[in-house]
Structure formats: C-alpha cells, structure tokens
Design brief:
By secondary structure, the protein is mostly helical. It contains 20 helices and nine strands. The chain is elongated, with a radius of gyration of 26 Å.
Length: about 525
C-alpha cells in the first residue's frame, strides 16, 4: 500500500476517500512535523509577549476585544469546544466524519495553525482506529468555519462527546478508559484552530464529487440504452458537430455515447429511416449531460484548491505576523455546491423526460406504456409518476443556499455562506437522481426488449443481459416497487459501470475520450 504525506502532498477527493476507506496509508512526514513544532513555538512566544492577538489571548467573535490572561488561555480553548457544540439533527455518516478528520489533519499539518504535534497525533489515532465522533448534521452557517460540527468532531479530544467505535456508540470517557488513554489539555489557539475551517463543507463536497460522478457516468450509459430502445438517431453525437461548440463536457459525453452504440445492429437497422429529428431528451444528451459534467468539473477543481489550503483563523505566518482574515469563509465551495446541486437535478429532469417519451408509444415497434396487453395492465405508467415526483422534489431543493445570509455572532459575522446546507442538499438531490436513473434503466431495458432479435453493441448488450438476471421482462403488471429497489441497488453499487469495465478489459477496448483524465475522480 502506498503512503500519502499529510501537509506535503497534493490531496484530491479520490485520495481522501481512499484514506478514509483504508486503501491508502497516510502519515505526517518529518519535514511537516518540524513545521508544526515551529508554529507551536511561535504561539508560545506570542503568549509570552502578552500582546493581544485574536484567538490566542482574546475572546472569540464579538468578544475579540476581551483580553484573556496567560493563565486562562487553556480554559479558553476548552470552553470554545464546549460552547460551540450546539449541533442538532441526525448524526452525519461515519465516512463523512472520517473525511472531516482527514481533511483537518492535512490542513493543520501545513504548519500555519499553531497546533500541537500531540494533538495531531491523537486525531491520527482516531482515523487509524476507525473512531468516529458523533457529529450532528445541522448547525453550521458555513462562514467562520464549520464551527458547530467541528466542535462536535473534536470534543472527544478533551474527553467529551460520543464516538462510534466497533459499530457501537459510546461516550468518549468509556473509549478512553478501555484504551487507557487520557484526554488532551489544549494549548493556546488550539481550540480555535480545530473548529475554524471548512472541513464539514469540504467533506460533503468530496462525497458530492464521487456520487455525482457516478450518476453522470451511468446517465450516459442508460441514455444510450434509451436511444437504442426508441431507435433514436446517432447523428447528434457526431464528433464534428461538437468540435463546432467545444465544451469539454459535451465532447466527453458525445464520445461516450458513440462508443456505447458502436457495432449496434439496432442503430444500423434504421440508419436511412425517414425520421428527421428526435426529441431533445435524446438529441441533446451531450448538451445537457455535458453541462452537468462541466459543473462537476468546476466543483472538483475548486474542491482540490480547498483541500490543500489553510482555512482556520488566525493564520500564524511568523512571530511578528499573525493574520486574522477570512480563509474560513465557505463561499468558494458554497456557490460551486449549489451549481453542482442544479446540475444533478437536471440529470434527473432529462431522465424523467426520456422515461415519459418511452411510454408514449410513438417509437416503431415499442407499445404504449411498454406493454402489449394494456387496459387490464397499466404497464410502466406509474413508474413515471415516481420519477416526476422525484424530479419535482429536486427542483424545490435547487434554491441556492449561498443566496441566503443571516448575520450571526452579534453582527461580527454579518455575511455567511450557508455552504454546509448546500453540501447536504446536493447529496439529497443526488440520492433522488439515483432513484430516477434506476427507473430509467428499467424502462430502457423494457424498450430494448422490443428490438429483439437485433442486438446492440457488446457493451450495452452485456448490461441488458446482466439486468435480466435481476429483473425479468414484464409481460404483465407486477409489484414494480421490487424492480425499482433492485434498480436502485444496481445504480448505487455502480454495477453497470463495472460490467462495462469488465468487458473493456476482456476485449481490450479503449473507452477514452479527449477529456477522460479530467473527468476522473482520482
């Protein structure tokens, strides 16, 4: 297993996920440890001087003018974790908590925060032993750092709060007793360094990058299946057309659709048909899916800047230069997350349109409602009700969280990003899109069936064969909820992507596009 160096190497969403899942080992290297020690020594010198420096020997937020004595600085750092632990709602997922710990270590290990080496080592112990603090999902406004969630994240350092350990929720005191570990005593600035930062927002953005990428990849595949099922034209995916409007996402999607439809008997069968144009939901897949790809790429690029940044406050440059700035403000990611949320919703929206199109019965050979004996049977009619409901729900969730700002901290924090809300909301929309895509997969496969005995190209044919091992062709009505549940599992597990990857390896096929590398998570 290779090793990642916190504070030194370039962190990506893919690497952060690999560390969280135990697939990539991560340590703080010798050079970073020296920088961390130097930064901690600088804090000691500032405290010894006695000059007022925000967060080191002053109160916080509107109390920034309140001087704190040298003797009380440790109490100050402990109290900030207690007083700011005000989150409410359900605990966030354990993997997201672990990502928060990983991202915080990487930021603090750059050596501009005055954190003690022993504090970072304790956080590493939590990561390596799969100890995840309980962090409520609500309470951050995404401005002066993700204060509330990060406070809950680090309460266990001082022996408070609860954690998940070996799939059991226990108090930190129980954990420490069982491991013969003592709580830490935080030094000057440490509490503030721990809770100032954008790690709650960024951890959610990491998950958005991964899960939206999965939806985008599967939407192209399922869209190609629907093109075949409804005998759409391949011309709108011609390379020359997209070179005339060369958006990266559009070119990437059009190339993928062409590769997926390559060698299809179904497409060859109607190459000279009289149909002039397909509806937009088929014809404009590169433009719509491509626009969402571009939004995803924008988020990925901004996220990587954030993952490799120092986002706490104040930032310790040297003994004579301590800057109280705004690197903790979540706006750069907040706006990108709202954009990504909209891009996800649009993937679900156009998918619902294709499902509706499949039910109309206007494609040669494909019966209305995707079933021959209708009247006594409703066919696939009501499945589209579900996708319509999900698409509508997503539209309601697309109001940009970053468009709102409510002053906090008695007006000291008078503009906030709400990026934490945007991150949570984007993931909610993506979950709905997974369900919509699952239903489109079922309807595309049903339409596909009416093209037999003609075959598709090898990639889509294998996906259809796999799906039929899980969900049989529907000749009459049945409890479609069971089919949908199976489809959702296939989408969540990225099974159709795995099927394509397996065939690609077996047949030594290249599925690369001009922008494949840019559109990878890792």
């Amino acid at each position: 297993m290779s090793t990642f160096l916190y504070g030194k190497e370039y962190l990506t969403a893919g690497k952060a996920l690999a560390i969280a899942r135990g697939k990539l080992h991560a340590v703080i290297d010798k050079d970073s440890r020296l920088q961390i020690k130097e930064s901690a020594k600088t804090i000691e010198k500032i405290v010894a001087k006695g000059e007022a420096v925000y967060g080191i020997n002053t109160g916080f937020g509107p109390l920034c003018t309140t001087k704190i004595s040298k003797e009380e600085t440790q109490i100050l750092q402990t109290n900030i974790l207690k007083s700011h632990s005000v989150g409410v709602g359900k605990p966030i997922h354990k993997e997201t908590v672990k990502l928060m710990l990983i991202l915080k270590v990487h930021s603090l290990a750059k050596g501009y925060s005055g954190i003690a080496e022993s504090t970072l080592d304790r956080i590493l112990w939590f990561i390596e032993n799969n100890v995840t603090p309980i962090v409520p999902e609500q309470g951050s406004v995404g401005a002066s750092g993700d204060l509330a969630p990060l406070s809950h994240l680090f309460l266990p350092l001082i022996g408070l709060g609860k954690v998940t350990y070996k799939d059991q929720i226990i108090t930190t005191s129980e954990l420490y007793k069982s491991q013969n570990i003592k709580p830490l005593v935080l030094g000057p600035k440490e509490g503030l360094a721990l809770i100032n930062g954008t790690q709650f927002i960024a951890a959610h953005a990491v998950k958005v990058v991964e899960e939206l990428h999965s939806c985008l990849s599967q939407a192209d595949i399922i869209g190609a299946m629907m093109i075949e099922g409804l005998q759409g034209s391949i011309k709108p995916f011609h390379k020359t057309l997209h070179e005339l409007r060369p958006f990266k996402g559009n070119i990437h999607v059009a190339s993928r659709i062409n590769m997926l439809l390559q060698g299809s008997e179904i497409m060859e069968d109607h190459i000279d048909c009289e149909r002039v144009q397909d509806p937009y939901s088929l014809r404009c897949i590169p433009q719509v899916h491509g626009a969402s790809r571009n939004a995803w790429l924008h988020l990925k690029e901004l996220l990587e800047v954030e993952l490799n940044s120092v986002t706490d406050n104040p930032v310790i440059i040297n003994e004579d230069l301590t800057i109280s700035g705004g690197n903790f403000h979540g706006q750069p990611l907040a706006m990108a997350l709202d954009y990504a949320c909209l891009s996800a919703s649009e993937i679900g929206n156009i998918s619902d349109r294709r499902i509706y199109l499949a039910l109309e019965g206007n494609s040669p050979g494909v019966p209305k409602l995707l079933m021959h004996d209708t009247g006594i049977n409703s066919g696939y009619m009501i499945l589209q009700y579900t996708t319509a409901a999900l698409a509508s729900e997503n539209k309601g969730l697309c109001f940009p969280s970053s468009a709102d700002s409510i002053p906090t901290s008695l007006g000291q924090e008078d503009h906030v990003s709400m990026g934490s809300i945007g991150g949570r909301k984007a993931l909610q929309v993506i979950k709905n899109v997974e369900k919509i895509l699952a239903i489109e997969l079922l309807t595309a496969a049903q339409a596909f069936e009416f093209r037999k005995p003609m075959k598709s190209g090898i990639l889509l044919d294998e996906i259809h064969k796999y799906l039929r091992t899980k969900v049989p062709f529907a000749k009459k009505d049945r409890v479609f909820a069971d089919d949908i549940e199976m489809g959702i599992n296939i989408i969540k597990n990225k099974t159709i992507i795995k099927v394509i990857e397996e065939i690609r390896k077996q047949k030594n096929l290249s599925l690369k596009t001009p922008y494949s590398k840019e559109f990878e998570v890792f």
